[in-house]
Design brief:
This protein is mainly beta and 295 residues long. It is 0% helix and 42% strand. Strands 8, 9, 11, 12, 13, 14, 15 and 18 form an eight-stranded mixed sheet that branches. Strands 16, 19, 20, 22, 23 and 24 form a six-stranded mixed sheet that branches. Strands 3-2-5-6 form a four-stranded antiparallel sheet, with no helix packed on it. A hairpin with a 7-residue loop joins strand 22 and strand 23 (276-277).
Length: 295
């Protein structure tokens, strides 16, 4: 298992000697193909007096997969390890995976790997194995109920929009220190909550726009103008729910169309499921859009 000791006890054979060499190889014995996450030297070890192969944690960062364990006597290059001893299955998540959750939606993650089991857990951290779980998820850990399928639950997730690390654990997983196996990155997509815009109510109508900053914003995102988040849309705008990515246009706005004041902007990845309030201090305070009359 990734990041756990790996040893082979009491290797069977004829005329084996203490000090015989073993090498974990990719594909077949004699292969010189590199294995991601581990150098060749870490994949080498020698038979002990009791014919054990003790790797301990030397291969703990090796990419999951099924490998050959190969034998040779003497000073051998990787190509000279042609005799198979057996197979090694390294279980765990594959390296460098890219995952995404969207603010205002439930966060379900599917990861790939070797020998993944139900009951494993994921934690979102700034750095695997240290710190605290990132705020904004319904729970600190995502649970696996089937192979490779993890969920933080059906409740809405609302972390600050940023790039985080996804970290994996099997067994007794109680704190960030137990989640030292990195799966890859998690993009928490959505606005930072810093919408900016001020529309003027002038005799000659002018275009009313709002600008968003964030992570993973797309052209199909929606922004709505409301009296308060969760209440009715504000009437009078040429369009009070519009699509965009970073700039949203509510159309022409002139004197007498809308009462001057501040209104809430609400963002969504889906047109019919407005879920995330843009905020100065995320996640729950609505961003206000000022509408003023020009005298």
């Amino acid at each position: 298992v990734k990041n756990a000791p790996c040893n082979f006890n009491a290797i069977q054979g004829t005329h084996l000697l203490e000090g015989d060499d073993a090498l974990v190889a990719s594909g077949f014995c004699g292969s010189t193909v590199t294995i991601p996450g581990v150098e060749e030297e870490a994949r080498r070890t020698k038979l002990t007096a009791t014919f054990d192969l003790l790797y301990d944690l030397k291969m703990s960062s090796m990419a999951p997969g099924i490998y050959e364990v190969c034998w040779c006597r003497g000073e051998c290059s990787a190509a000279e390890f042609r005799v198979p001893i057996g197979k090694l299955t390294m279980e765990g998540p594959r390296l460098n995976q890219s995952l995404e959750c969207v603010r205002g939606h439930a966060c379900h993650l599917n990861i790939s790997g070797e020998g993944l089991l139900a009951g494993e857990k994921l934690m979102v951290l700034l750095s695997c194995g240290t710190g605290q779980a990132v705020d904004g998820f319904p729970s600190e850990m995502a649970q696996s109920h089937s192979q490779g399928a993890f969920s933080f639950g059906d409740e809405i997730s609302d972390p600050f929009a940023a790039i985080y690390r996804v970290c994996w654990c099997r067994g007794a997983c109680t704190s960030a220190a137990d989640f030292f196996v990195e799966v890859g990155i998690l993009q928490a997509s959505g606005p930072h909550g810093l919408a900016q815009g001020e529309c003027q109510l002038t005799p000659e109508p002018s275009n009313c726009t709002a600008d968003l900053t964030g992570v993973g914003l797309t052209a199909g995102d929606r922004l709505a103008v409301m009296h308060e988040c969760g209440q009715e849309l504000v009437e009078g705008f040429s369009a009070n729910m519009v699509s965009g990515a970073e700039r949203f246009s509510f159309g022409l706005l002139g004197e007498g169309q809308v009462a001057p004041g501040e209104y809430a902007l609400r963002w969504s990845r889906r047109a019919l499921a407005l879920a995330v309030t843009t905020a100065d201090s995320p996640p729950h305070q609505p961003q206000k859009k000022a509408v003023t009359t020009q005298l």
